[in-house]
Design brief:
The protein has 347 residues and is an alpha/beta fold. It is built from twelve helices and 14 strands. The strands form three sheets. The protein has an eight-stranded parallel sheet with strand order 5-6-7-8-9-10-11-12.
Length: 347
């Protein structure tokens, strides 16, 4: 068994900004790590999207992958025992879950290819009940954001990045351009706890579906107060990283944004989905700006959630893998073994 990694730079169609620093896109450069597992003549692949906000980099991902070749006990001798493998990796690399997510994906891709079935069938799931994805609109000048909204006319839901002093101006223009669209507002911690309710009240006239992460993570008492008084449902993103966060958020929000790159991959995300159902929380499955390899892992389990924000590959100008299809505004996996990758020749 051999594990390897390779850096990959792709590019977003447009500069993509959010309200807080520490995003994973620099200008239009999107730097990722492709992780490969070679065993028994088959290669499984996964994608790591390290986010500086969580203290992860390309270097930290590569370091974790190197450890797999140095310490065979981390993977063991049974590649089908994915849950056990992921638990060992999380115990060892708790602060490097983007890397664990890529390893988790590579294992699922390898098994799917060996068994001749797509990962979603391997998990006993379906593509029939996958919700439509939203399309993300990054922060920019109001007129530019409206132009991006018009370009996304085929999507019934738009995830609008907010958190600036021009939010009301921007949303007024957007609502005029797309009066029927569902608007999901993502603040990315852009407001203080003291101003959040006033901001929410001001934006409520645009009838948003929900407000995501209005205040900095870690202020759960404030988040609970805002949730209880807000006329708009509140979702958590930066406050929800791993399964242990779910029960802490019960009563603080209406829903959670689960991202494989944050939690450590498919197996950890499944744990979070089950916990969220038990806590009566709505579930959105989200992503970073990723290629279709990274997004395919999330799409494989997207039939289990309420809302989907899996458009990361659609934001790229040079998406290399072709692992997904777009049916209207629904992102779907192929009916091919593993993640069904069609890798560009130069990769």
């Amino acid at each position: 068994m051999e594990w390897s990694s390779e850096r990959l730079r792709v590019h977003s169609k447009y500069p993509f900004r959010i309200a807080r620093p520490g995003g994973s896109v620099s200008g239009r450069n999107v730097d990722r790590v492709i992780v490969r597992c070679l065993h028994d003549g088959t290669i499984g692949m996964g994608e790591a999207s390290p986010v500086p906000y969580y203290g992860e980099t390309l270097d930290t991902v590569e370091h974790v992958v190197q450890q797999l070749n140095r310490d065979a006990s981390l993977i063991g001798d049974d590649l089908y025992a994915v849950s056990e493998i992921v638990r060992r990796l999380v115990d060892r690399f708790d602060q490097h879950r983007a890397a664990v997510s890529a390893i988790d994906a590579a294992l699922h891709d390898w098994i799917g290819q060996k068994l001749g079935i797509p990962v979603w069938r391997l998990l006993g799931l379906s593509m029939r009940n996958v919700p439509a994805t939203s399309m993300s609109i990054g922060l920019d000048e109001p007129e530019v954001m409206v132009e991006r909204v018009r370009e996304a006319s085929g999507f019934s839901a738009l995830k609008i990045k907010v958190g600036t002093d021009r939010d009301e101006e921007t949303l007024a223009l957007i609502r005029e351009a797309v009066p029927e669209a569902k608007l999901r507002l993502d603040v990315n911690e852009g407001w203080t706890p003291d101003e959040a309710l006033d901001r929410i009240e001001a934006l409520s006239r645009f009838s948003p579906e929900f407000i995501e992460q209005p205040i900095p993570a870690g202020h759960l008492d404030d988040l609970r107060r805002i949730h209880e008084q807000s006329p708009i449902p509140i979702y958590a993103d930066e406050d929800v990283v791993c399964p242990e966060d779910i029960l802490r958020l019960q009563g603080c929000v209406s829903g959670v944004n689960i991202k494989l790159v944050k939690c450590g991959g498919i197996r950890e995300a499944l744990r979070m989905i089950h916990l969220s159902r038990a806590a009566d929380l709505k579930i959105m499955l989200g992503c970073m700006a990723e290629t279709s390899l990274g997004i395919a892992a999330a799409v494989s389990i997207s039939s289990l959630v309420d809302l989907v924000d899996l458009d990361g590959h659609l934001l790229l100008s040079d998406e290399p893998f072709g692992a997904l299809t777009l049916d209207g505004d629904r992102v779907l996996c192929h009916d091919a073994p593993g993640f069904g990758l069609s890798v560009r020749p130069d990769l």
